[in-house]
Write a structure and sequence with these properties.
Number of helices: 0
Strand order of the largest sheet: 3-4-5-6
Largest sheet: 4 strands, antiparallel
Helix content: under 10%
Strand content: over 45%
Distance between the termini: 26 Å
């Protein structure tokens, strides 16, 4: 994993993360809170930093699973975080800066591909592929989800994004 503090002009490899297969990362609006998914060869887990991602500040959270974690999104403050798992039907939510996680099981067998949260964390969107592409939304910080729309066209939903307010959403 690499980190930049100068608008991406220079990058520093984080020694605390060498040897892991890093998959996804998301950061708060100030950059202070950062969360990353990695795979250690057996389990997927989430590590967090509350010190702008600098070396030696990353710690393991309460989430370690054999479920393949496929996306993570962090609210502007960093307090609310959501991760999704492929083929398990699970969404994982945190309301304490990623330190502890709660599993929200939606439908076993669904392939969750991506997730995005609004600036406040209240509004969230997750994309799933299960015969067709479905878009799920939450308006209560990821605690409950409803199917919002779907796209029966073949192919996978690969990304989703929300505006700061959560009013505007786009997926691809």
């Amino acid at each position: 994993s690499f980190s930049s503090t100068d608008f991406g002009n220079n990058w520093t490899q984080l020694s605390s993360t060498v040897g892991y297969q890093w998959r996804y990362v998301s950061i708060s609006s100030s950059g202070q809170y950062q969360s990353a998914i990695n795979y250690d060869g057996t389990n997927y887990n989430i590590q967090v930093s509350s010190e702008y991602g600098s070396n030696a500040t990353w710690s393991y959270t309460g989430l370690t699973t054999t479920q393949r974690l496929t996306g993570i999104s962090v609210s502007a403050s960093g307090q609310y975080q959501t991760a999704c798992a492929d083929t398990s039907g699970s969404i994982w939510i945190s309301s304490d800066y990623g330190n502890n996680w709660t599993e929200v099981v939606l439908t076993a067998g669904n392939e969750w591909k991506c997730v995005s949260v609004s600036s406040s964390g209240q509004y969230q969107t997750a994309c799933v592929y299960d015969v067709a592409n479905y878009i799920y939304t939450s308006s209560d910080y990821g605690n409950t989800w409803v199917i919002n729309s779907y796209d029966p066209v073949n192919g996978y939903v690969t990304s989703v994004s929300l505006s700061a307010s959560g009013q505007y959403r786009d997926w691809e």
